[in-house]
Amino acid sequence: MINRFYTAFDSESMGEARKGDYRTPFQVDRDRIIHAHAFRKLQSKTQVFLSGEYDFYRTRLTHSMEVAQIGRSICVFLRSRGAPLGDDFHIDSDLVEGVCLAHDLGHPPFGHSGERTLQELMLRWGGFEGNAQTLHLLTETMYQNESGVRGMVPTRALLDGVLKYKKLIGEFPSLPTKHFLYDRQERHRDFVFGDATIPAALHGGEKLNAFKSVECQIMDWADDAAYSLNDIVDGVKAGFLTIERIEAWAAGELIDAERQRWLDQLCVAIRGDRLENVFAQKVGGFITACRLRERTNFMSAKTNRYRFELVISPGAEREAAFYKKMANDVIFESPQLQQMEHNARRVLFQLWESCWRNYVEKGDRVITILPPRVGRLLDLEATPAGKARQICDWLAGLTDGMIVRTYQRLFDPQFGSIRDLS
After folding, report:
1. Which of 34, 65, 312, 370 could form a disulfide with 374 if both were Cys (CB 3.0 to 4.6 A apart)?
2. What is the mean pLDDT of the chain?
Protein backbone atom coordinates (compact mmCIF):
# COMPACT_ATOMS: atom_id res chain seq x y z
CA MET A 1 0.00 0.00 0.00
CA ILE A 2 1.35 3.42 -0.98
CA ASN A 3 1.98 5.75 1.94
CA ARG A 4 0.56 9.13 0.87
CA PHE A 5 2.36 10.93 3.69
CA TYR A 6 5.48 11.04 1.49
CA THR A 7 6.07 12.12 -2.11
CA ALA A 8 8.96 11.97 -4.58
CA PHE A 9 10.20 15.19 -3.00
CA ASP A 10 10.83 13.38 0.30
CA SER A 11 12.48 10.29 -1.23
CA GLU A 12 14.74 12.15 -3.67
CA SER A 13 18.38 11.29 -2.94
CA MET A 14 21.23 13.76 -2.74
CA GLY A 15 23.86 12.92 -5.32
CA GLU A 16 23.71 10.06 -7.77
CA ALA A 17 20.35 8.56 -8.70
CA ARG A 18 19.59 5.28 -6.97
CA LYS A 19 18.83 2.06 -8.79
CA GLY A 20 15.46 0.39 -8.25
CA ASP A 21 15.25 -1.90 -5.24
CA TYR A 22 12.78 -4.22 -3.53
CA ARG A 23 13.12 -1.97 -0.50
CA THR A 24 11.64 1.47 0.01
CA PRO A 25 14.08 4.41 -0.24
CA PHE A 26 13.87 4.84 3.54
CA GLN A 27 14.68 1.16 4.16
CA VAL A 28 17.75 1.61 1.96
CA ASP A 29 18.76 4.63 4.08
CA ARG A 30 18.44 2.64 7.28
CA ASP A 31 20.31 -0.38 5.90
CA ARG A 32 23.20 1.74 4.61
CA ILE A 33 23.59 3.26 8.08
CA ILE A 34 23.55 -0.12 9.84
CA HIS A 35 26.21 -1.58 7.53
CA ALA A 36 28.52 1.45 7.69
CA HIS A 37 31.90 1.32 9.43
CA ALA A 38 31.05 4.57 11.24
CA PHE A 39 27.98 2.93 12.80
CA ARG A 40 29.93 -0.09 14.06
CA LYS A 41 32.45 2.23 15.70
CA LEU A 42 29.71 3.51 18.01
CA GLN A 43 30.03 0.29 20.03
CA SER A 44 33.35 1.61 21.36
CA LYS A 45 32.48 5.27 21.86
CA THR A 46 31.56 6.76 25.21
CA GLN A 47 27.96 7.57 26.11
CA VAL A 48 28.56 8.59 29.74
CA PHE A 49 31.17 6.19 31.09
CA LEU A 50 34.18 5.10 29.04
CA SER A 51 33.29 2.27 26.70
CA GLY A 52 34.71 -1.07 27.80
CA GLU A 53 35.09 -0.03 31.45
CA TYR A 54 32.21 -2.33 32.35
CA ASP A 55 30.19 -4.39 29.92
CA PHE A 56 26.79 -3.22 31.10
CA TYR A 57 27.27 0.53 30.58
CA ARG A 58 25.62 2.04 27.54
CA THR A 59 27.78 3.01 24.60
CA ARG A 60 26.83 5.29 21.71
CA LEU A 61 25.74 2.15 19.84
CA THR A 62 23.40 0.75 22.49
CA HIS A 63 22.07 4.26 23.10
CA SER A 64 21.35 4.69 19.37
CA MET A 65 19.54 1.35 19.30
CA GLU A 66 17.39 2.38 22.26
CA VAL A 67 16.58 5.71 20.62
CA ALA A 68 15.59 3.86 17.43
CA GLN A 69 13.26 1.54 19.37
CA ILE A 70 11.59 4.49 21.10
CA GLY A 71 11.32 6.36 17.78
CA ARG A 72 9.63 3.41 16.07
CA SER A 73 7.27 2.99 19.01
CA ILE A 74 6.25 6.66 18.80
CA CYS A 75 5.38 6.13 15.12
CA VAL A 76 3.29 3.06 15.99
CA PHE A 77 1.53 4.89 18.83
CA LEU A 78 0.72 7.96 16.73
CA ARG A 79 -0.67 5.76 13.96
CA SER A 80 -2.80 3.83 16.46
CA ARG A 81 -4.57 7.04 17.47
CA GLY A 82 -6.23 7.30 14.06
CA ALA A 83 -6.96 10.50 12.14
CA PRO A 84 -5.19 12.25 10.60
CA LEU A 85 -2.96 9.17 10.29
CA GLY A 86 -4.07 5.85 8.83
CA ASP A 87 -2.88 2.79 6.92
CA ASP A 88 -2.13 4.81 3.77
CA PHE A 89 -1.05 8.04 5.50
CA HIS A 90 1.46 7.73 8.32
CA ILE A 91 4.97 8.62 9.53
CA ASP A 92 7.35 5.99 8.17
CA SER A 93 8.87 4.00 11.05
CA ASP A 94 11.77 2.76 8.86
CA LEU A 95 12.67 6.38 8.13
CA VAL A 96 12.48 7.35 11.81
CA GLU A 97 14.54 4.29 12.75
CA GLY A 98 17.24 5.32 10.26
CA VAL A 99 17.25 8.89 11.59
CA CYS A 100 17.58 7.63 15.17
CA LEU A 101 20.36 5.16 14.33
CA ALA A 102 22.28 7.94 12.55
CA HIS A 103 21.80 10.76 15.04
CA ASP A 104 25.08 10.22 16.95
CA LEU A 105 27.35 9.09 14.09
CA GLY A 106 29.38 12.30 14.17
CA HIS A 107 30.18 12.26 17.88
CA PRO A 108 33.88 11.80 18.68
CA PRO A 109 35.58 9.56 21.25
CA PHE A 110 35.34 10.45 24.96
CA GLY A 111 31.70 11.58 24.70
CA HIS A 112 30.87 15.22 25.39
CA SER A 113 34.41 15.79 26.68
CA GLY A 114 35.78 14.91 23.26
CA GLU A 115 33.22 17.10 21.53
CA ARG A 116 34.06 20.13 23.65
CA THR A 117 37.79 19.64 23.01
CA LEU A 118 37.38 19.37 19.23
CA GLN A 119 35.15 22.46 19.33
CA GLU A 120 38.02 24.32 20.95
CA LEU A 121 40.63 22.97 18.52
CA MET A 122 38.54 23.74 15.44
CA LEU A 123 37.21 27.15 16.45
CA ARG A 124 39.48 29.00 13.98
CA TRP A 125 39.05 26.39 11.24
CA GLY A 126 35.28 26.29 10.75
CA GLY A 127 34.21 24.74 14.05
CA PHE A 128 33.25 21.27 15.20
CA GLU A 129 29.72 20.18 16.11
CA GLY A 130 28.49 16.63 16.60
CA ASN A 131 25.31 17.09 14.56
CA ALA A 132 27.13 18.91 11.74
CA GLN A 133 29.71 16.11 11.75
CA THR A 134 26.91 13.55 11.36
CA LEU A 135 25.73 15.44 8.27
CA HIS A 136 29.34 15.50 7.04
CA LEU A 137 29.54 11.70 7.34
CA LEU A 138 26.21 11.04 5.67
CA THR A 139 26.89 13.31 2.70
CA GLU A 140 30.64 13.12 2.20
CA THR A 141 32.75 10.56 4.03
CA MET A 142 30.76 7.55 5.25
CA TYR A 143 31.43 5.38 2.20
CA GLN A 144 34.54 7.25 1.10
CA ASN A 145 37.15 5.34 -0.91
CA GLU A 146 40.50 6.09 -2.53
CA SER A 147 38.80 8.15 -5.25
CA GLY A 148 37.59 10.64 -2.65
CA VAL A 149 34.27 11.98 -1.42
CA ARG A 150 31.04 10.01 -1.77
CA GLY A 151 28.81 9.78 1.31
CA MET A 152 25.87 7.40 1.54
CA VAL A 153 23.62 9.26 -0.97
CA PRO A 154 20.81 9.83 1.58
CA THR A 155 17.24 10.78 0.82
CA ARG A 156 16.03 14.28 1.55
CA ALA A 157 13.78 13.03 4.36
CA LEU A 158 16.60 11.10 6.07
CA LEU A 159 18.98 14.03 5.81
CA ASP A 160 16.38 16.45 7.11
CA GLY A 161 15.47 14.09 9.94
CA VAL A 162 19.04 14.11 11.23
CA LEU A 163 19.36 17.92 11.14
CA LYS A 164 18.64 19.03 14.69
CA TYR A 165 20.29 22.37 13.86
CA LYS A 166 20.07 24.28 10.58
CA LYS A 167 21.87 27.54 11.28
CA LEU A 168 25.35 27.96 9.76
CA ILE A 169 28.20 28.93 12.05
CA GLY A 170 28.75 32.08 9.98
CA GLU A 171 25.13 33.18 10.50
CA PHE A 172 25.65 33.78 14.22
CA PRO A 173 26.63 37.30 15.37
CA SER A 174 29.55 35.77 17.31
CA LEU A 175 31.21 32.38 16.99
CA PRO A 176 29.14 29.72 18.80
CA THR A 177 30.66 26.60 20.37
CA LYS A 178 27.73 24.32 19.53
CA HIS A 179 24.38 23.95 17.73
CA PHE A 180 25.41 24.94 14.19
CA LEU A 181 26.20 23.62 10.74
CA TYR A 182 29.53 24.17 9.01
CA ASP A 183 29.39 27.05 6.52
CA ARG A 184 30.29 24.75 3.65
CA GLN A 185 27.18 22.67 4.44
CA GLU A 186 24.88 25.39 3.14
CA ARG A 187 24.34 23.38 -0.06
CA HIS A 188 23.11 20.43 2.01
CA ARG A 189 20.65 22.71 3.80
CA ASP A 190 19.53 24.07 0.41
CA PHE A 191 18.88 20.51 -0.75
CA VAL A 192 16.88 19.71 2.39
CA PHE A 193 14.61 22.70 1.73
CA GLY A 194 14.38 22.03 -2.01
CA ASP A 195 16.16 25.36 -2.65
CA ALA A 196 13.23 27.24 -1.10
CA THR A 197 14.11 30.66 0.33
CA ILE A 198 14.28 30.63 4.11
CA PRO A 199 12.06 33.42 5.51
CA ALA A 200 14.00 36.23 7.14
CA ALA A 201 11.99 35.78 10.33
CA LEU A 202 13.56 32.33 10.88
CA HIS A 203 17.09 33.74 10.91
CA GLY A 204 16.55 35.55 14.20
CA GLY A 205 17.91 33.92 17.34
CA GLU A 206 17.42 30.15 17.54
CA LYS A 207 14.28 30.02 15.37
CA LEU A 208 15.98 28.27 12.43
CA ASN A 209 17.55 25.69 14.74
CA ALA A 210 14.11 25.01 16.21
CA PHE A 211 12.57 24.50 12.75
CA LYS A 212 12.56 20.70 12.39
CA SER A 213 10.75 18.07 10.38
CA VAL A 214 8.36 15.84 12.30
CA GLU A 215 10.79 12.89 12.01
CA CYS A 216 13.56 15.04 13.50
CA GLN A 217 11.24 16.02 16.34
CA ILE A 218 10.48 12.36 17.02
CA MET A 219 14.19 11.51 17.05
CA ASP A 220 14.92 14.46 19.34
CA TRP A 221 12.27 13.43 21.86
CA ALA A 222 13.27 9.75 21.64
CA ASP A 223 16.86 10.83 22.36
CA ASP A 224 15.74 12.91 25.34
CA ALA A 225 13.58 10.06 26.63
CA ALA A 226 16.44 7.57 26.33
CA TYR A 227 19.27 9.49 27.92
CA SER A 228 17.29 11.36 30.56
CA LEU A 229 16.24 8.01 32.03
CA ASN A 230 19.12 5.73 31.05
CA ASP A 231 21.87 8.04 32.30
CA ILE A 232 20.22 7.76 35.71
CA VAL A 233 20.15 3.94 35.51
CA ASP A 234 23.82 3.74 34.49
CA GLY A 235 24.74 6.32 37.13
CA VAL A 236 23.15 4.21 39.87
CA LYS A 237 24.83 1.02 38.61
CA ALA A 238 28.19 2.81 38.49
CA GLY A 239 27.82 4.07 42.05
CA PHE A 240 27.76 7.74 41.04
CA LEU A 241 24.11 8.13 42.00
CA THR A 242 23.42 6.95 45.52
CA ILE A 243 20.41 7.83 47.62
CA GLU A 244 22.68 9.94 49.83
CA ARG A 245 23.97 11.96 46.84
CA ILE A 246 20.49 12.30 45.38
CA GLU A 247 19.11 13.62 48.67
CA ALA A 248 22.06 16.00 49.08
CA TRP A 249 21.47 17.31 45.53
CA ALA A 250 17.73 17.71 46.14
CA ALA A 251 18.42 19.74 49.28
CA GLY A 252 19.90 22.47 47.08
CA GLU A 253 17.09 22.44 44.50
CA LEU A 254 13.63 23.94 44.39
CA ILE A 255 11.59 20.77 44.80
CA ASP A 256 7.84 21.21 44.36
CA ALA A 257 5.24 18.47 44.90
CA GLU A 258 5.62 17.12 41.38
CA ARG A 259 9.40 16.84 41.61
CA GLN A 260 9.15 15.38 45.10
CA ARG A 261 6.95 12.61 43.71
CA TRP A 262 9.57 11.77 41.03
CA LEU A 263 12.30 11.91 43.67
CA ASP A 264 10.42 9.55 45.96
CA GLN A 265 9.74 7.11 43.12
CA LEU A 266 13.43 7.09 42.25
CA CYS A 267 14.59 6.41 45.79
CA VAL A 268 11.99 3.67 46.32
CA ALA A 269 13.06 2.04 43.03
CA ILE A 270 16.74 2.13 44.04
CA ARG A 271 16.06 0.69 47.48
CA GLY A 272 13.90 -2.06 46.00
CA ASP A 273 16.40 -2.82 43.20
CA ARG A 274 13.64 -2.15 40.67
CA LEU A 275 15.10 0.88 38.91
CA GLU A 276 15.27 -0.64 35.42
CA ASN A 277 11.69 -1.91 35.63
CA VAL A 278 10.35 1.39 36.90
CA PHE A 279 12.22 3.44 34.32
CA ALA A 280 11.20 1.08 31.49
CA GLN A 281 7.61 1.97 32.36
CA LYS A 282 8.54 5.65 32.26
CA VAL A 283 9.86 5.18 28.71
CA GLY A 284 6.41 3.90 27.80
CA GLY A 285 4.88 6.98 29.40
CA PHE A 286 7.14 9.25 27.37
CA ILE A 287 6.03 7.47 24.18
CA THR A 288 2.33 7.91 24.91
CA ALA A 289 2.91 11.56 25.84
CA CYS A 290 3.18 12.34 22.09
CA ARG A 291 0.56 13.95 19.86
CA LEU A 292 0.47 15.42 16.33
CA ARG A 293 -0.64 18.94 15.44
CA GLU A 294 -0.98 20.64 12.06
CA ARG A 295 1.08 23.74 11.35
CA THR A 296 1.65 26.20 8.53
CA ASN A 297 5.09 27.36 7.40
CA PHE A 298 7.11 27.92 4.24
CA MET A 299 7.63 24.15 3.79
CA SER A 300 4.20 22.80 4.80
CA ALA A 301 2.79 22.99 1.26
CA LYS A 302 5.75 21.00 -0.09
CA THR A 303 5.81 18.13 2.37
CA ASN A 304 3.74 16.63 5.18
CA ARG A 305 6.97 16.41 7.17
CA TYR A 306 6.50 20.11 7.87
CA ARG A 307 2.70 20.14 7.76
CA PHE A 308 2.65 18.24 11.05
CA GLU A 309 4.62 18.72 14.25
CA LEU A 310 5.12 16.63 17.37
CA VAL A 311 3.62 17.89 20.62
CA ILE A 312 4.83 16.49 23.95
CA SER A 313 2.77 16.75 27.11
CA PRO A 314 4.28 19.42 29.41
CA GLY A 315 4.45 16.95 32.31
CA ALA A 316 6.62 14.52 30.36
CA GLU A 317 8.91 17.34 29.26
CA ARG A 318 9.28 18.54 32.86
CA GLU A 319 10.06 15.02 34.09
CA ALA A 320 12.72 14.47 31.41
CA ALA A 321 14.29 17.84 32.25
CA PHE A 322 14.32 16.90 35.96
CA TYR A 323 16.31 13.70 35.35
CA LYS A 324 18.66 15.42 32.90
CA LYS A 325 19.50 18.10 35.46
CA MET A 326 20.10 15.51 38.15
CA ALA A 327 22.41 13.52 35.88
CA ASN A 328 24.31 16.65 34.86
CA ASP A 329 24.75 17.97 38.39
CA VAL A 330 25.57 14.71 40.16
CA ILE A 331 27.26 12.60 37.44
CA PHE A 332 28.73 14.90 34.80
CA GLU A 333 29.97 17.48 37.30
CA SER A 334 31.43 14.83 39.59
CA PRO A 335 35.20 14.90 40.26
CA GLN A 336 35.63 11.49 38.58
CA LEU A 337 34.10 12.57 35.27
CA GLN A 338 35.82 15.97 35.43
CA GLN A 339 39.14 14.14 35.79
CA MET A 340 38.25 11.98 32.79
CA GLU A 341 37.45 15.12 30.79
CA HIS A 342 40.83 16.61 31.71
CA ASN A 343 42.55 13.44 30.52
CA ALA A 344 40.52 13.32 27.28
CA ARG A 345 41.40 16.94 26.57
CA ARG A 346 45.11 16.24 27.04
CA VAL A 347 45.02 13.22 24.70
CA LEU A 348 43.22 15.09 21.92
CA PHE A 349 45.38 18.21 22.21
CA GLN A 350 48.63 16.25 22.03
CA LEU A 351 47.51 14.13 19.10
CA TRP A 352 46.31 17.25 17.28
CA GLU A 353 49.65 18.99 17.83
CA SER A 354 51.59 15.95 16.62
CA CYS A 355 49.51 15.74 13.44
CA TRP A 356 49.82 19.47 12.82
CA ARG A 357 53.61 19.45 13.19
CA ASN A 358 54.09 16.41 10.98
CA TYR A 359 51.55 17.10 8.24
CA VAL A 360 50.93 20.85 8.11
CA GLU A 361 53.97 22.66 9.52
CA LYS A 362 56.46 20.00 8.44
CA GLY A 363 59.90 20.37 9.98
CA ASP A 364 63.09 18.52 9.21
CA ARG A 365 61.84 15.29 10.75
CA VAL A 366 58.45 13.88 9.81
CA ILE A 367 56.87 10.73 11.23
CA THR A 368 53.80 8.93 9.93
CA ILE A 369 50.84 9.21 12.29
CA LEU A 370 47.77 9.20 10.08
CA PRO A 371 46.63 6.15 8.09
CA PRO A 372 47.98 6.38 4.50
CA ARG A 373 44.57 7.16 2.96
CA VAL A 374 43.94 10.00 5.43
CA GLY A 375 47.45 11.33 4.85
CA ARG A 376 46.87 11.41 1.09
CA LEU A 377 43.54 13.22 1.51
CA LEU A 378 45.21 15.75 3.79
CA ASP A 379 48.00 16.37 1.26
CA LEU A 380 45.37 17.13 -1.40
CA GLU A 381 43.94 19.95 0.73
CA ALA A 382 45.21 23.34 -0.42
CA THR A 383 44.44 25.36 2.72
CA PRO A 384 45.26 25.04 6.43
CA ALA A 385 41.50 24.96 7.13
CA GLY A 386 41.11 21.98 4.79
CA LYS A 387 44.02 20.17 6.40
CA ALA A 388 42.63 20.92 9.87
CA ARG A 389 39.28 19.39 8.82
CA GLN A 390 41.01 16.18 7.71
CA ILE A 391 42.83 15.89 11.06
CA CYS A 392 39.55 16.61 12.87
CA ASP A 393 37.70 13.99 10.82
CA TRP A 394 40.32 11.39 11.70
CA LEU A 395 40.26 12.19 15.42
CA ALA A 396 36.45 12.31 15.54
CA GLY A 397 36.24 8.93 13.81
CA LEU A 398 38.45 7.12 16.32
CA THR A 399 36.93 4.97 19.04
CA ASP A 400 37.93 5.36 22.69
CA GLY A 401 40.26 2.36 22.43
CA MET A 402 41.82 3.44 19.12
CA ILE A 403 42.64 6.93 20.32
CA VAL A 404 44.13 5.70 23.61
CA ARG A 405 46.35 3.15 21.83
CA THR A 406 47.49 5.77 19.31
CA TYR A 407 48.34 8.14 22.13
CA GLN A 408 50.23 5.44 24.02
CA ARG A 409 52.32 4.50 20.99
CA LEU A 410 53.37 8.13 20.59
CA PHE A 411 53.88 9.18 24.20
CA ASP A 412 54.16 6.13 26.48
CA PRO A 413 57.67 4.57 26.42
CA GLN A 414 56.34 1.46 28.18
CA PHE A 415 53.87 0.80 25.37
CA GLY A 416 55.74 -0.81 22.52
CA SER A 417 55.49 -4.59 22.18
CA ILE A 418 54.35 -6.13 18.91
CA ARG A 419 51.00 -6.90 20.56
CA ASP A 420 50.39 -3.18 21.00
CA LEU A 421 50.55 -2.33 17.29
CA SER A 422 46.88 -2.94 16.43
Report:
1. 370
2. 91
